[in-house]
Amino acid sequence: MQIQDLPYSDPGVPDARSGPRLLWWLGRNQLGGQCRALLWGLLHFASVCALPFCVGLAVQAAVDRSAGRLALTGGLMLLCGTAIAVGDTFLHRAAVTNWITAAARLQQLLARKAAYLGSALTRRVAAGEVVTVSTGDVEKIGWFVEAVSRFTAAALTVVVVCVALLVYQPALGVVVAVGLPVVALAVLPLLPRATSRADVQREKAGRATELASDTVAGLRVLRGIGGEDLFLDRYRRASQEVRHAAVRSARMWSVISALQVLLPGLLLIVVVLRGVQLAREGRITVGELVTVYSAVMIVNYPLRHFVEIAMAYSFSRPSAQRAARVLSLQRLTNTESSRTSGAPGGELFDPASGLRAPAHGFTAVVCGDPDMAGRLADRLGGHAAEPGRSVLLGGVPLDELSLAQARTAVLVQDKDPVLLSGTLRELLDVPSSGTVRAEDALAAAQCADVLDALVQGSLDASDPMDARITERGRSLSGGQRQRLALARSLVTDPEVLVLDEPTSAVDSHTEARIAEGLRRLRRGRTTVVLTSSPLLLDRADQVVFLHEGKVAATGRHRELIGAEPRYRAVVTRETEDEQHASGDIAAPAPPRERPDPSDGAPLLGALEPLEEIEESA
C-alpha cells in the first residue's frame, strides 16, 4: 500500500478485543510494507556494522605495508558507504509509509464507527476521548507499527555481529556475545514502571483534552454567565497534573536512556582491557583489536532501537486500548435483516416508554427530563437501550433492519447538531428523497437572516449557497446554527423525522413561523418533535406527555394544559409551590401520630400550609 493510494477502499474488520490484539492486527495487515522496511533495514544496519571489519583490515594492511589490500579495503568501505546511504533512504521511506498507512487505516475505521453509531457514540464514550483517539493516539499507534520492522532489522543485525565476532576473533567475540544481550536486556525490569507512568500521563492528558473540548464547545455560554475564569482554573489545574505526570514519566525514561549509554561504555572498557591483554600476549593482531573495538562502538547504533521499541510500545499500548474500546462498540442489537424491499413505513412505537407516533402525523413529545429525552431520541433512531426493546416502525423492529435501511426510514436531529465547514450548498448536499428543494427547506426553517449573514461574512460569494460556513458554524449564533441544521434535516425528507428541541435557541416569533413551516413541509410524513415549547405543541396533531420515562397522558395541547397538572408544570415552568397555591396538587397529609393538643401543635400544623401559600404568593 502506497501513500498515494489512500484512502483504503476497505480498511477491514479490526480485532478490537484488546489493545495488543489491535496492534497485532494492524501489523499483520501491513505485512508487505513491514517486509520491505525489514529488508532495507537489514541492508542499512549490516552495512553500518561492516565498516569496523573494513577499518580493521585497512589498519592491518597498513601495518603489513600491503598496498593491494589497502586499496581493496578502501573499495569495500566505499561499497559499504553506498549501501548505508541507499538502505537508510529507502528504510526511511518504507517506515514513514508504514506509519502513515497504519494511521490512515485506523482513522478510517474510527470514522466508519462514528458513522455507524451516530450520536450514540458520544453518549457511550466521552467526546474528549474520541478526539484524543482520532488524533494523538492514532499517531502513537502508527509509530509503534512502523518501529517494529526497524527493531527487527536491528535485532537481527546485532545477532549477526555477535556471530561474526565469534568467528573472526573468538577470544574477544565471547566477551561481546555475552555482554551485548546484557546491555540490551538490562532495562527490561524498568519498563513496567515506565509504562505505568506513561499510562498515567496519557490518562491525565485525555482528561485535559476532554475538558478543553467541552470548554471550547460551551465558550459562548461561559462568556454569558461569566464562567470563563472558573473553567480556565480547572484547565490550568488539569494541565499542571499532565505536566507533573509527564515529568515523572520522563525521569524514568531518562534513567533508561542513561543505562543505554553507561552499559555499552562499560562493555567497551572491558573489551579494550581484554584486547590489550591479548595483544600483549600476541594472541591477536592490532587490526583485530581495532576491528572488535570499532564493532562494539558501532553496534550501539542498532541497540538504540531496543529502547525506541520499548518506548513506542509503552505509549501505543494505552492508545491502542482506547482505540479498541471505541472500535468494539456495537449497536446493542445488531441483526442485519435480509429485507430487500426497502425501509418499512407506518406507526412508530417505542415499547420502553409506550410512545406511539401515528404515521403521517405531527407528534410532539414532552419530557420533564432532558436526559430522558436524549435517550428516547437514541431509541427512536434505532439505538436500543437494551436488547429486545427496539423501536417498531410499522411493526418492524428497527434493529432488524440494516443500518442503511434504518437511517433511510428514520432521521434523528440531535439537540446539539454539528455543522461541517464548507459552503452552504455542500452542507445541504445530503442523501435525500429529492422531493424537498433546498430553497423550500431554508424558507421553512426561517433562514433568511442566516443567508444574509453568510453573504456579508463572505467576500467572494454573492450567492448565499456559495457562502462558506466555518468549522462547526462558530461564526453564527446558536439560533442560526439550529435553523441551518433544521433545514438540512428537512431537505433529507425521511419517512420519519425526529427533532430534539429544534427551536430552543430562537425567539418566539421565529419559533411560531418555524412551527408553521415545519407542519406545512412535513405534511404526509411522520414527524416527532421532542419539545416543551407551547408554540410547537399547539400545532401538533397529538401531544404525548412522558413522566418518569412512561406515557402519562395523550391528547391535544389545549386539552392537556387544563387536564394534566404535571404537563402544565413542565410546559409553563411552574414551581411546586405555585402548583400547591393553584390547588393542582393537594397539600401533604398530616402525620399519623398526632401530638398532644395541650402543647399547641395542632394550631401550628394548621398554620403551616397557610404560611406556605403566603410565601408562594
Rg is 36 Å
| Proportion of residues in extended strands | 5-15%
Could you say which overall geometry the principal axes of the C-alpha atoms support? elongated
Helical proportion, percent range: 55-70%
Number of discrete domains = 3
Tally of contiguous helical segments: 23
Helix/strand class: alpha/beta
- CATH second-level architecture of the largest domain: 3-Layer(aba) Sandwich
**CATH class placement of the largest domain:** Alpha Beta
Care to count the β-strands?
12
In CATH, the topology of the largest domain is named: Rossmann fold
Low confidence ranges: 334-340, 585-617
Distance between the termini: 75 Å
- Whole-number average pLDDT? 81
State the fourth-level CATH superfamily of the largest domain: P-loop containing nucleotide triphosphate hydrolases
Main sheet strand line-up: 6-9-10-3-11-12
Largest sheet: 6 strands, mixed
GO molecular function, one term: ATP binding
Region (Disordered): 572-617
Biased composition (Basic and acidic residues): 572-581
Domain ABC transmembrane type-1: 50-313
SSE diagram, text form:
Layout: H1 19-28, H2 31-63, H3 67-117, H4 120-124, H5 127-168, H6 170-185, H7 191-217, H8 219-225, H9 228-280, H10 286-298, H11 300-327, E1 348-350, E2 355-357, E3 362-367, H12 370-380, E4 392-393, E5 396-397, H13 403-409, E6 410-413, E7 422-423, H14 424-427, H15 438-444, H16 448-457, E8 468-469, H17 478-492, E9 496-500, H18 508-521, E10 526-530, H19 534-537, E11 542-547, E12 550-555, H20 557-563, H21 565-572, H22 576-582, H23 601-616
Parallel strand pairs: 3-10, 3-11, 6-9, 9-10
Antiparallel strand pairs: 1-2, 1-4, 4-5, 7-8, 11-12
Helix pairs in contact: 1-11, 2-3, 2-5, 2-10, 3-5, 5-6, 5-7, 5-11, 6-9, 7-9, 7-11, 9-10, 9-11, 15-17, 15-18, 20-21
